[in-house]
Amino acid sequence: MGRLVLNVLLSFAQFEREIISERTRDKIAATRRKGKWAGGHPILGYDVDPRGFRLVVNEVERVRAIFELYLEHECLLPVVQEPERRGWVNKRWTTPKGRERGGQPFERTSLYRLLTNVAYIGKVRYKDEVHDGGLMFALNCCACVIVNIYGHKLPA
Fold first, then answer.
1. How many CB atoms are located within 10 Å of the residue 98 CB?
2. pTM confidence score
3. In this structure, are residues 83 and 131 in contact, taking their beta carbons and an 8 Å threshold?
4. Contact residues for 33 (Cβ-Cβ < 8 A; gap 6+)
5. CATH at 78
6. By residue range, what is the domain housing residue 56?
7. SS3 (DSSP) at 35
8. Count of domains forming the chain
9. Separation CA 110–CA 4 (nearest Å)
10. DSSP state letter for 44
11. Is 131:33 a contact under the CB 8 Å cutoff?
12. 50-89 pLDDT per residue, tens
């Protein structure tokens, strides 16, 4: 009799864990569909707003320069070398626990992620979905690069 009760309790606990994780995923998806930032690592050119759900623009000139370099060279390798020559690094931020993150030199992968990030044209990505970013600030110089990388068509 004791094992039966224990198995029933374990089944309810597992069911409750699944419900909580499903609600959390749905909440994050709803936040992204509204165009809000749902957490994660801040990207170069943005800082986390103290209120949490928005990104505040900074470092704009550096981002614009990287996009303009890509438009000029149309190749990643020279664009990777130029920020290194200028001493630029990836986004550096402090976690809520006070740990320093980021600040690494640009590599091809990190630069490609920066150039293809739809946040720079005012959109928000959630898994395979791309939504209009209502509270995000689009950097006008970035749209042509992102459109060009996606083959003259933004992901829908």
1. 6
2. 0.70
3. no
4. 126, 129, 131
5. 3.90.1750.20
6. 34-149
7. coil
8. 1
9. 53
10. T
11. yes
12. 665 555 666 778 888 888 888 888 888 888 999 999 999 9
